Amino acid sequence: MARGISQDDWCQALSSIIEELTEPQYKKMMMLLPKIPQSKKKMAREEMPEVIVSQYGLEESVVAVQEAVGKIPRNDPRMIGLLQPFTAALHGDSIGLQSSNTEGCYIDKDDVYDIDGAREAFILCQKENRRGAEVDLERTRKLLSKYGFKCTEETDLLGKEIIPELTAFRDRANRRQVRCCVVVLMAHGKEDSILGTDNQPALLKEIFALFNNKECPKLQGQPKVFIIQACRGSDVDEGVMQADDLPSDFEDDGIQKYKLPTISDTFTVYPTMPGNQALRHPERGSPLFWVMEEVFEKYAPRYHLADLFMKVNQKMVQPDYTLKSSTAKVTVNVETNFTKALFLR
Fold it and tell me: What is the pLDDT of residues 191-208, one digit of tens each?
């Protein structure tokens, strides 16, 4: 890694830069990169990031691409936004992490959670009478493991067993320095609870309380993410037609201690709005998890968690789903009191 630049991150950004270019612009870029042999310039666009880095080296490729983009010219905010994190890193500037919802907006490293270290995840998957749940479990396990989370898994718990199992997980986190915690709950549910296999509830407010700053002091100031794949009622959002006039598209060492709110640094994701049913396909699993897999694979190194779920929601609101022969629409519901940005790397 050169001057804080990750080769994987740069190659992904370079892929996006190349995708943005028209065919004439792409041909001009190839002309402006003379170190690339003519034989390699005929390779597919998706192969070119690795070719450019191999011919120029990591740091020099950033400089060469920046100069080429300027000469094409492509000095629009989109292109500048893709380049600036890496050019800033070369000059020792701020961390330059891109916030995807505001072109040209960068996040200082002090405003990013430091999650280097232990990462713990708890996954509850109620498979009984929930066809497709096994697919969700496998997909979630794979995704979290990719980002370095040690996963604790429980399946088919009774209602009375849910809180004790989560408490045991919380207590383990309290005994070590965990830098990030994720809790994924897949079950039948109501607006204020998830259900055990015996249909007995475990209240969500009691689950969230287990990880607040009072009950879980080791996670104070660290990100805690909750993903609740469960119904929040019995209503079905059948959607509405788009209106014609709407667009389509601490005192020691001089550090001051301060009092924390009871609940902070949490990020909670629901697959549907309050009162509505959550959807799950008997073979493919839940839309939330298959869209998460797709979005995180493409954007996770560069986008922070809030922006990732914005992307997830963009994809989930578009299709018409079918539930008992009726059309159903879904939208992700996110509740957060994060104090920093969370990047999964």
Answer: 899 999 999 999 999 999
